[in-house]
Automatic annotation (TrEMBL):
Source species taxonomy: Bacteria, Pseudomonadati, Pseudomonadota, Alphaproteobacteria, Hyphomicrobiales
Alcohol dehydrogenase-like N-terminal domain sequence ranges: 1-65
GO molecular function, one term: zinc ion binding
One Pfam family hit: ADH_zinc_N
Keywords: Metal-binding, Oxidoreductase, Zinc
Protein's organism: Bradyrhizobium elkanii
Database matches in InterPro entries: ADH-like_C (IPR013149), ADH-like_N (IPR013154), ADH_Zn_CS (IPR002328), GroES-like_sf (IPR011032), NAD(P)-bd_dom_sf (IPR036291)
Protein name per its UniProtKB record: Threonine dehydrogenase-like Zn-dependent dehydrogenase
Amino acid sequence: MGHEYCGVVVEVGGAVRTVRPGQFVVGSFCLSDNTCPHCKFGFQSSCVQREFMTGAQAPYARVPLADGTLVATAELPGNDLIPHLLATSDVLGTGWYAADAANVRQGSTVAVVGDGAVGLMGILAAKEMGAERIIAMSRHRSRQELARDFGATDVVAERGAAGIERVKELTAGVGADSVLECVGTQESMTQAIDSVRPGGSIGYVGVPHGVTFDGQAMFFAQRRMLGGPAPVRRFLPDLMDRVLKGRIKPGKVFDLSLPLAEVAEGYRAMDERRAIKTMLTV
């Protein structure tokens, strides 16, 4: 899709004021002015001038609304930090938003539906936010191992009704305080809704595909829901700072690195589940 990106600025337009050539920058997949009422409210992904970044899978990329979209580092980072900074551009920012939307708090119990890159980043986010128990719903060994590395305390391999029942067993029949839905299917959304306790919250960031709700069931379930495209720009300065200080290493989610010319193989590897997330280099 070409919407995750970081790199060195080579040229700026005449109206750009906050970044300059030679700086290393990270940008969000949602382009925003960062000044409109929605941006100021923390939802840059609903900016009145919103555009979606595309075309970043190339040697050079043009970034509209650069002043409101790009965040620069104080100095050029070492090559070892590039994967971790790249992750902040989308998958970490989206996983972080899922945890934020699900109201993850110190000492809470969190369940994460989805073991792709975003779900794994949601686990990392929940850990950073102080969750005491993090239940990763995953059936793939390599992803289970990475989930535990990022902070998962429990792994549930079951899906559907069996997965919901297992979450209830792990929480003494109560359900999770917060659930992060990171897939977007009917099955995953149902699993998220039925795994959270009354009064609990669901942060959903998986783009919905054929998902429907029973309005009356939701009414009596008394569960909060917030989601949509992640306002990554809101979180970028903090996430980049955590990376630069060595506090988090989200780039571990990139388990395959390929040159730009082999982009098709990168997508093929992810589609065939030979890779969690591919990083392309130029």
